[in-house]
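Q: I'm writing up a methods section and want to include an example of the input and output format. Could you take the sequence below and give the corresponding predicted structure tokens, formatted cleanly so I can copy it straight into the document?
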Amino acid sequence: MCGISGICNFIKNPSQDFVKVMTSAIHHRGPDDSGYFSSDFISFGHRRLSIIDIEKSLQPMTDEKNKNTIIFNGEIYNFKNLKEELIQLGHTFKTYGDTEVILKAYSSWGVDCLNKFEGMFAFAIWDFNKKQLFLARDKFGEKPIFYYQSKEHGLVFSSEIKSFIALNEIKKNLEFDLDSLNEYLSLNYLLEDKTFFKNIFQLKPASYILVNSKNFKEKIKVKKYWFLEKYFKNKTKDTFQESREKFSFLLKNSTKQRSFSDVNNGTFLSGGIDSSSISLQLKEIDNHKMLAHNISFKEKDFDEFDDAKKISKFLKIGLNDYRIPEEKELVQDFPKIVEAMDQPMSDTSFIGMFYLSKYSCKDSKVVLSGDGADEIFCGYDTYIADFYRKFLPTIGKSQKNILKRLAKTIFKTNISKVSFDYKLTKFLNGLSFKKEHSHILWREIFSSTEKKSILNNVDPNLINYNFLNIIDENYKLVEDLHYLDQNMFIDIQTWLPNDILYKIDRSTMYHSQESRLPFLDSKLVEYVCSLPVSYKFSFFERKKLLRNILTEKLPKSLFKKKKSGFNIPVGLWLIYNKDFKDMAYDLLNTRFMNTIFKKTELENIWHQHQTKKEDQTYKIFNLICLSQWIINNKLEHKI
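A: Here is the clean output for your methods example:
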């Protein structure tokens, strides 16, 4: 696991000093070693977090035969099998890691090597003979890569946006994207290739780009190499029992591949089904001493330590429990938490992941996590909402407002772990959209009406739902499928890479820790997507197949537990934690915030939350993350 950066320029040779500045900005992604490479038209920088073949697999790495050079972030889990295949083709190897395997695979198969890799990755290969840059990202978007293109600097790329901001020559030309702000206020994150800057883009999952002297001045053309929709469309005829056996094999194999390293492994254990299943797999694969990690809270509604303790005791594995810091330490850390985000991404659980990684990295340089299971097994409450939605008509604005007022008179606002009144309000909001849009808007933060009332001096045409066009385009790819298959596909394309995977990569890598996700093995996901919806979901049971497999292997109490999600008591801190409350209020009232937002509306949101008239946790957290990010990066003048 590492951080990479580089510049490709066919007009003038890139500055290695620039690359060094960019690479230093992502030191946290690889504190163990650094390396640089420069040649005509190209300059690479690399920070290494040593996990496999610690002594030899140094980067940048150059193939002595063809002089191709690679920088690579991630892990290729099937590299040993690929290495054997490449040896049969006549290749020889000097190292024992996966970096050299990628380099040799490209030499043999070109860009088609991407279809050979099982893993998480973002890499750049400079093809010496073709004088061509090959930049690629893994199938699900576990590892990030961003790029910036200009006449002056050529194509500039890095693992994080920090690198571009660190380079004054680029920062001065960055343009804040108000369209991205509109999207962020609605979703808490940004879709597809968007960032908060008009001229910085994220390479989308399962995609690659090629840059050479012929296309250098053209707009970057992004090409896809893997298409998830075909696996949803090609349904298996396997029986439930056959599916049970095949999935069990795939999960065990995936976990075994992801447990290989030359450093200490651990697992994140919340006590829920997903993390418990990974802990079980690790225990069955290798019955050695392994360590699980859990984050706990003094607020009992949010604390899952007792559940994690039951599982660890049942499996006879060690459990480290860490407590979220209180008061002053939490406030002192908040700028670092937002710095770790790289750009605003205001899922409150980011705080929990930040501290879980901060404390666990001392004992486990590699951790396995259960992320990804909810998206492939209909695990979220939003799928229940989808089930109800299909029986209900789309309602108008006036009907929605009447129902919301009625709901507020019946159900008292409860600042708790995604309370019923909050869910009901979001459900009623979703009913005012067509079914395909309801699914992604169950999680909406600010509605279009709310954005129009809060934004100040912003072109009204920028306040819209244009981002739903992306959702529509994705629905067209699976338009003939079961509505839950459609919605799982949408989540894997949107929510998974831009919230879940974004969160776990940034929080762990900020603390120089590598996270691995067994549920995101591509063969496993392809198979699960081919299963009938009935194997995954019924009104009375979600994650049906996974539960069925685990029932005989884990405590019965696990299956009686109501799904709660990894939520953080930010709403309570905003009221009862004086230091956090004061910090949040100050962040809402900076010069920047009072320029782009109406002060009266900010005060109204704050008052509603303080008086418990309405739970405004997610709105306030959305806004203070944005405000802190602007402060951290001195971007006030960019608006």
